[in-house]
């Protein structure tokens, strides 16, 4: 089935719910769902607003595609360049900083590239992977993770495309890590996913982290009622206010602390996140 046909089916099947004001369609990057962050947050919003949330957990590029096509009311995403393009084209009304974490470079326990894991230097780490031609798995799935990875290679002055050691998977982060664990490869993962699933990857360890270039910022974007009058814009704005509220930001701050001793995400609502007059 073609992508446009699929989007058309989503609009036709869900717009009646949105018009009724009882359903909010959220297109989200995969990590918050995979790591369980939404488990408590989304039911709380549903209860407070007597509504149902229909969540699509997708790579960021596809989540933005749903927002851009009018098939989602709000998107939670982490690819700033793509987000800004959607906003500039008028398919999103406004974006707010929501939370952030960072990426980690994971690799085999024997670390064949000889990366010094004590140094927060991802450029040098990637250069070492290239120099010894160590196997590296990448997503290549329109995800924010893949876009970040490509930006990191570029910052290191390396073009890995078409290299024999650089292998496309088309998989999400959890499955890429599973494959890397089995095959002894390096790969990039967001910290929340790593913390949640690292016990399943006994053959991998973090070989590079804490570089400022590896920060991972996540924003929330409302759709455009001007372009798509059928979207549930009022409920989307309520959802934004909910996610930026002190209560939810505190829930984000402590997420993962009990299990991992560190949070999955850092709350990032700022004073410049205030709902504008047109959004009220």
Automatic annotation (TrEMBL):
Q: Which residues form the PBP domain?
A: 22-247
Instruction: Note the coiled coil stretches, chain numbering.
Output: none
Q: Which UniProt keywords apply?
A: Signal
Which SUPFAM superfamilies does the record associate with it?
A: Periplasmic binding protein-like II
Q: Which InterPro entries does the record cross-reference, listed alphabetically?
A: ABC-Tungstate_binding (IPR052738), PBP_domain (IPR024370)
What range does the record give for the signal peptide?
1-20
- Looking at the record's lineage, which domain of life comes first? Bacteria
- Give the protein's recorded name: PBP domain-containing protein
Q: Which organism is it from?
A: Candidatus Edwardsbacteria bacterium GWF2_54_11
């Amino acid at each position: 089935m073609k992508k446009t046909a699929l989007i058309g089916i989503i609009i036709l099947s869900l717009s009646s719910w949105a018009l009724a004001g009882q359903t909010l369609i959220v297109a989200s990057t995969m990590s918050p769902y995979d790591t369980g962050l939404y488990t408590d947050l989304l039911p709380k919003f549903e209860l407070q607003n007597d509504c149902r949330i229909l969540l699509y957990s997708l790579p960021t590029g596809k989540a933005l595609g749903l927002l851009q096509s009018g098939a989602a009311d709000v998107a939670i995403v982490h690819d700033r360049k793509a987000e800004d393009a959607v906003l500039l084209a008028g398919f999103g009304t406004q974006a707010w900083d929501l939370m952030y974490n960072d990426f980690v470079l994971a690799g085999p326990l024997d670390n064949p590239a000889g990366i010094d894991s004590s140094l927060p230097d991802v450029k040098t780490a990637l250069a070492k992977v290239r120099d010894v031609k160590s196997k590296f798995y990448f997503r290549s799935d329109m995800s924010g993770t893949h876009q970040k990875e490509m930006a990191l290679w570029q910052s290191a002055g390396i073009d890995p495309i078409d290299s024999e050691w650089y292998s496309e998977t088309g998989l999400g982060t959890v499955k890429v890590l599973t494959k890397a664990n089995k095959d002894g490869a390096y790969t990039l993962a967001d910290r929340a996913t790593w913390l949640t699933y690292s016990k399943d990857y006994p053959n991998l360890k973090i070989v590079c982290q804490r570089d400022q270039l590896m920060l991972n910022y996540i924003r929330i974007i409302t759709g455009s009622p001007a372009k798509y009058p059928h979207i549930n814009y009022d409920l989307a704005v309520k959802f934004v206010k909910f996610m930026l509220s002190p209560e939810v930001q505190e829930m984000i701050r402590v997420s993962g602390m009990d299990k991992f001793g560190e949070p999955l995400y850092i709350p990032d609502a700022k004073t410049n996140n205030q709902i504008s007059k047109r959004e009220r």
